[in-house]
Amino acid sequence: MKQYETATRFLAALDKDWAMLIEAVGPCGLELKAEREPYEALVRAVAYQQLHGKAADAIIGRLLNLNAGRIPLPEQMLKLEFDALRACGFSGRKIETIKGIAEGTLSGLVPNRLSAESMPDNELIERLVSLRGIGRWTVEMLLMFTLARQDILPVDDLGVREGYRRLKGLAVAPTPKALRQLGEAWSPYRTIASWYLWRVPTSL
Fold first, then answer.
1. Element (H, E) at 152
2. What letter does residue 185 receive in the DSSP assignment?
3. Higher confidence at residue 203 or residue 38?
4. CA atoms within 13 A on the CB side of 84
5. Which pLDDT tens digit goes with each residue over 119-146?
6. Pairwise CA distance, residues 195 & 84, whole Å
7. HEC profile for 54-70?
8. pTM: predicted TM-score of the whole model, two decimal places
9. Is 157 a catalytic residue?
10. Taking the C-alpha atoms of 127, 93, 104 and 50 in order, what is their torsion angle to the nearest 10 degrees?
């Protein structure tokens, strides 16, 4: 996409490995869900925690079916029975988490979209990780895909770390700490760098 051309040129100029990756993958196709409120984005992100995409998609699909194709509003979520959410595929721990997100939204702890847009990355992360079951990775997904922050590097993401390992032909993937240091060279486009690392071909 044209909006990412500056970022892809920046990354391609880092070294020959990045240049080859971007040539192999093509233009960045990062898809944003800018219309979503943080509440919905967090609920969806919880579904994807530690699951393959297709399994999480199925869980979200069943949740949508409970409410005429929409994510239940916070007050609706709190009224849903445990068994109904369990039947969607949520674990007991994730049910507790999404109920907590709903409560946090009603209390004001989870900001609305307008408020979240004005908050710095670290402030939003620090605020939302106070919710049970919400870690840094989950908030980073919100920052990347809903709030369109272009300089987020989810160092705990196994796909990003494994992508870097393949990109550089390493025997083992870097630790989160090591990746954070390496990623400083990709700023201010670490979100776009992450998108490409998720897509490193196995043959590269």
1. none
2. G
3. 38
4. 13
5. 999 999 999 999 999 999 999 999 999 9
6. 34
7. HHHHHHHHHHHHCCCCC
8. 0.88
9. yes
10. 50
